[in-house]
């Protein structure tokens, strides 16, 4: 995967760097409730500013659909970003055109500014060439540091990369190297853990992975669909019964590709979905009652999964094994995550995880920092797992 990084930049002092970042952070009562995405930009932004570049941050915020909405202005993020960065940050009330150019002309080497929400322009999501040219006129070179937006062919993520010298920022670089190591050119055997509620949301992921990995662990509500497809009665469990043929075709494809699919053989069930319900019990998958629902993978199955992962050199993880937000249905996810983290720390496993629920689950297990790489990207990480080409990444390679 050939792309230029900040290491390929020459003298940048006084030059204008258009840096696409992800500042689309959750807000609650006017405050940023999770600053993970803000912190992810710091290595690139500080490096460029320290080298004397004029750093102009391009980002979207919410879904304004081409409307200029004050409640989705990036001015709301400027002060929180300034606090995280520990440096002054200016706000420019446009991301293209004369107003933006006039404001940027007043900036000096090392200054940092957030430009207004790119999605205030309808042309952003249409990957409009004219808007991209107007943005390009504001900068001397382009840096994409927003892997989480790389699956979108937008003006600020794709078209702009063709108009200026283009480079991957430090977060983008780390992401691409980790993904290449995990699925592009991995050390074998490779295991993938795919969890979540519905098979329908991850059909492409499963179909692609069975041809790429040696072990596929299916958890969450998705596992119920596969168990039901094999003729197992899953009671009141969340299950997509209409996808029986699809599930069986995925299992057949796995057999042809010599990929071992791991489904739970003992499970944690309850008659109601609540924290620590009185009806909680562990049983074999063939013993689930008609009035019970499967809410987690059982301890014996988790132990077997841990043994399988111990034989592997690479692990990709997306999605929890059970309803991890509600105790004690986080037990399987936490136990397997801690096994993977320990193997990573001893140097026998490369572990790459991604997706919002996955990050939350690894944080809950206290091991997010012990994985080789944890991606905060949602849609982009999933599309990468599906084997799709990401427009924002392809533009950097060109």
Describe the protein.
The protein has 398 residues and is α/β, with parallel strands linked by helices. It folds into two domains: 6-173, Phosphoglycerate kinase, N-terminal domain (Rossmann fold), CATH 3.40.50.1260; 186-385, Rossmann fold. The protein is built from 15 helices and 17 strands. The protein has helices spanning 36-40, 42-50, 75-85, 98-105, 122-125, 129-136, 170-184, 203-209, 220-229, 244-256, 299-310, 331-345, 356-365, 379-385, 391-397; strands at 16-20, 27-28, 31-32, 54-58, 90-92, 112-115, 141-144, 166-168, 190-194, 215-218, 260-262, 266-270, 281-284, 293-297, 314-318, 350-354, 373-375. The strands form four sheets. A six-stranded parallel beta sheet has the order 5-6-4-1-7-8, with helices on both faces. The protein has a six-stranded parallel beta sheet with strand order 11-10-9-15-16-17, sandwiched between helices. Strands 13-12-14 form a three-stranded antiparallel beta sheet. Helix 11 runs parallel beside helix 12 (331-345) and helix 12 packs across helix 13. It is elongated, with a radius of gyration of 23 Å. The mean pLDDT is 95.
């Amino acid at each position: 995967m050939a792309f230029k990084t900040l290491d390929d930049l020459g003298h940048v002092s006084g030059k204008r760097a258009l840096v696409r970042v992800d500042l689309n952070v959750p807000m609650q009562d006017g405050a940023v409730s999770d600053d993970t995405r803000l912190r992810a930009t710091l290595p690139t932004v500080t490096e460029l500013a320290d080298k004397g570049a004029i750093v102009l941050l391009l980002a979207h915020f919410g879904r304004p659909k081409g409307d200029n909405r004050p409640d989705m202005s990036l001015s709301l993020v400027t002060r929180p970003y300034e606090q995280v960065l520990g440096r002054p940050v200016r706000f420019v009330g446009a991301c293209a055109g004369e107003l933006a150019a006039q404001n940027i002309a007043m900036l000096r080497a090392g200054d940092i500014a957030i430009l207004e929400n790119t999605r205030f322009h309808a042309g952003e999501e249409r990957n409009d060439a004219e808007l991209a040219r107007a943005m390009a006129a504001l900068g001397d070179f382009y840096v994409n540091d927003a892997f989480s937006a790389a699956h979108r062919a937008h003006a600020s993520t794709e078209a702009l990369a063709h108009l200026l010298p283009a480079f991957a920022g430090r977060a983008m670089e780390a992401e691409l190297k980790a993904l290449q190591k995990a699925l592009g050119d991995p050390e074998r055997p490779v295991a993938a853990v795919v969890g979540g509620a519905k098979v329908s949301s991850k059909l492409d992921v499963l179909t692609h992975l069975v041809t790429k990995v040696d072990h596929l662990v299916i958890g969450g509500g998705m596992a119920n669909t596969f168990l039901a497809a094999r003729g197992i009665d899953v009671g009141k469990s969340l299950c997509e019964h209409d996808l029986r043929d699809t599930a069986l075709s995925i299992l057949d494809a796995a057999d042809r590709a010599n990929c071992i699919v791991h489904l739970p053989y003992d499970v944690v069930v309850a008659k109601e979905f609540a924290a620590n319900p009185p009806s909680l019990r562990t049983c074999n998958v063939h013993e689930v009652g008609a009035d019970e629902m499967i809410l987690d993978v059982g301890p014996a199955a988790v132990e077997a999964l841990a043994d399988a992962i111990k034989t592997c050199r690479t692990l990709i993880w997306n999605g929890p094994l059970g309803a991890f937000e509600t105790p004690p249905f986080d037990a399987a996810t936490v136990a397997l995550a801690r096994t993977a983290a320990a193997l990573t720390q001893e140097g026998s496993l490369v572990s790459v995880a991604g997706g919002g629920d996955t990050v939350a689950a690894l944080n809950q297990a206290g091991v997010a920092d012990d994985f080789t790489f944890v991606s905060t990207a949602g849609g982009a990480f999933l599309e990468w797992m599906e084997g799709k080409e990401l427009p924002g990444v392809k533009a950097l390679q060109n």
